[in-house]
Amino acid sequence: MRAQRPARRTPATDALSQDTKSRILDAAELLFMEHGFEATSLRQLTAAAGVNLAAVNYHFGSKEELFQAVLTRRLDPMNQERIDLLARYEREAGSKPLTCEKILSAMLIPALRLSRDEKRGGKHFLRVLGRAYADPAPFIRNFLSAQYAEMIARFKEAFLKALPHLTKQELTWRLHFVMGALSYTLAGTDSLKLMLQVITNDQDNDELLLQRLAPFLAAGLKAPLGDAKKLELVSGD
Amino acid sequence: MRAQRPARRTPATDALSQDTKSRILDAAELLFMEHGFEATSLRQLTAAAGVNLAAVNYHFGSKEELFQAVLTRRLDPMNQERIDLLARYEREAGSKPLTCEKILSAMLIPALRLSRDEKRGGKHFLRVLGRAYADPAPFIRNFLSAQYAEMIARFKEAFLKALPHLTKQELTWRLHFVMGALSYTLAGTDSLKLMLQVITNDQDNDELLLQRLAPFLAAGLKAPLGDAKKLELVSGD
DNA sequence: GCACGATTCAAACGCCCGTTTGAATCATGC
DNA sequence: GCATGATTCAAACGGGCGTTTGAATCGTGC
């Protein structure tokens, strides 16, 4: 399809010095975050990337395939990192089951690493991902399911050992809650931050954030099973 | 602007028997859930509602204002219900501070009621809302912030009394996590369900769901403060 | 230094978008 | 039963969309 071209580096703008495919991916990551998939046009995107309009269809086939490429580029390595880290923890622990907090670390740390890595798109990508979770488009939903399948299965297994009082079904729900809180937190939509009047803007924002999220999630995962009478519907009156 | 017209009821289709404004709102709720705001066209929407294309701009002004109307119709009463229920609990408790679980109930029960009320759009609306949280469009973000401001402030106050070991800032973050898990759960995007292989499809789905979510969130809210060393970045190897 | 595949480019294609318009229709108060 | 304002309607507006095309350009192997 395409031949490698020597990257001719201009001194000032580093973004412009990459090859066409990377320039498109970077611009897409940024614009999909800012405006969403549907609201981002290829004309606007290719202009921002400094490439010809037809380049997206030439290199990626279609706008949808470009979106999947944007997700894959970051998601694949991150989930692999999660699986590897979990495996390493399990190796280090020997025969003893891992603690809940340790397994959570294996989920959170690769995400945190990615969010702090400006060279790998930093937070931009995690916002795109947070939005993608909530997107009803079938091509996005199916894609994400496939991307996450292996990672989720591995972590479910680990959590089951660490939390023997939970049934499989109960754990499935609690993982659902974990993913919800995590994706919202990492996506960091301004609307929620505005709502809750969060002011923090420091550099170590994300690390502090995950240090707050981890105990919250660990406590939730370890909680005793719910009492059926705790949440009965209050009728009228 | 508009004069009231007597609703002429056809026996079979109840949807077609409402007035134009309601028909548009109902169709919009459904289509915005299925395809999102940007991906839903007014031609498709008005056709589904059985009204003329120009009716949206006549009755609501623009597509954006229609979206806000879709949100307001359900969100306003639900948040008012939450505030009222919290006030009632506080009245019943007298001078004693409410438990964390009780305050959570005041948040969850009105949402659960809405989700089970087919006449009020049922789950359709909550999915639209879940998507809206993650939408980057400024007109959506600002609108949601304003809609939630009072409710969030009231509940923050109540939680502060129930959880005296938390600082204001810590509570703000935990409420952030609560809203994230809650909105994900209620929005119930298929992609997450697919990922986690949730099978339940019964009628009391939502009630069971919140009975599972409530203990999880309560435990998270009550968790001790995080240890700074718990989640340190593991460098390399 | 030329041939050839990979890439870039400007232009156009066909289509659908949100909105506006001005006339037709309806419902009501007089 | 007619005047009046609210509502509905078909049609059009201007513009932007994703994609395709075919020629120009580039970069490398011979």
Counted up, domains of chain A total 2
Based on DSSP secondary structure assignment, what is the total number of beta strands of chain A?
Answer: 0
**Would you identify the regions of chain A where 5 or more consecutive residues have pLDDT less than 50?**
1-15, 233-237
Q: Over the alpha carbons, how many angstroms does the gyration radius of chain A reach? A: 21 Å
Briefly, what CATH class of the largest domain in chain A?
Answer: Mainly Alpha
Please tell me the CATH architecture of the largest domain in chain A by its name.
Orthogonal Bundle
Summarize the structure.
The structure is a homodimer of 237-residue chains. In chain A, 68% of the residues lie in helices and 0% in strands. Chain A is mostly helical.
Produce the secondary structure layout.
2 copies of one chain form a homodimer.
Chain A: H1 20-35, H2 42-49, H3 55-60, H4 63-93, H5 100-116, H6 122-133, H7 138-162, H8 168-187, H9 190-196, H10 205-222
Helix pairs in contact in A: 1-2, 1-4, 1-6, 4-5, 4-7, 5-6, 5-10, 6-8, 8-10
Chain A binds a DNA duplex (30 and 30 nucleotides) through helix 3.
Task: Jot down its keywords.
homodimer; 237 residues; mainly alpha; Arc Repressor Mutant, subunit A; Tetracycline Repressor, domain 2; 10 helices; elongated; disordered N terminus; disordered C terminus; DNA-binding
Outline the structure in words.
2 copies of one chain form a homodimer. Chain A has 237 residues and is mainly α. The first copy, chain A, folds into 2 domains: 43 residues, Arc Repressor Mutant, subunit A (Orthogonal Bundle), CATH 1.10.10.60; 151 residues, Orthogonal Bundle (Tetracycline Repressor, domain 2), CATH 1.10.357. The first copy, chain A, is 68% helix and 0% strand. The first copy, chain A, is built from 10 helices and no strands. The structure holds a DNA duplex (30 and 30 nucleotides).
